[in-house]
Design brief:
The chain has 123 residues and is α/β, with parallel strands linked by helices. It has helices spanning 25-30, 48-54, 59-69, 85-93; strands spanning 15-17, 36-40, 73-77, 99-100, 107-109, 119-121. The strands form 2 sheets. It has a 4-stranded parallel beta sheet with strand order 1-2-3-4, with helices on one face. Strands 5-6 form a two-stranded antiparallel sheet. α3 packs parallel to α4 (85-93).
Length: 123
């Protein structure tokens, strides 16, 4: 019988990866309640016009999507070398405090919801 080898069902983890994109209601809808949202953050807010021209997002826009979707953790990706990762992270954290920018070889740990929040482990 399944109950002899399995625990009771529990809520799982949900990871949403947006790729290169402008903020969209589709991402907000799909990311509802996600453990982690990985979102494009190529530009800072000072370059909103460039983000609009190229189909990318600013850090603040990514944070706004995360907040609207009610995710636990936002991970910023596809950062432009024009900005320091700290600058973009800090801009996003003004809107969504649980924002991280991973570096090479970092590990994102995503526990089950009843075991804690996602965290970034630096190696």
């Amino acid at each position: 019988k399944p109950e002899e080898v399995m625990d009771a069902p529990r809520k799982g983890r949900k990871l949403v990866f947006s790729g290169d994109t402008r903020p969209t209601s589709a991402v907000v809808e799909l990311a509802q309640g996600a453990s982690v949202l990985v979102h494009d953050s190529t530009f800072g807010s000072s370059e909103l016009d460039r983000a609009l021209e190229t189909g990318h997002s600013t850090a603040k826009e990514a944070a706004t999507v995360a907040a609207a979707a009610g995710v636990k953790t936002l991970v910023l990706t596809h950062l432009s070398s024009r900005h320091s990762w700290r600058e973009l992270r800090d801009e996003a954290r003004e809107v969504f405090p649980e924002t991280f920018v991973p570096k090479d070889f970092d590990v994102l740990v995503v526990p089950y919801p009843d075991k804690g929040s996602p965290r970034l482990d630096r190696v």
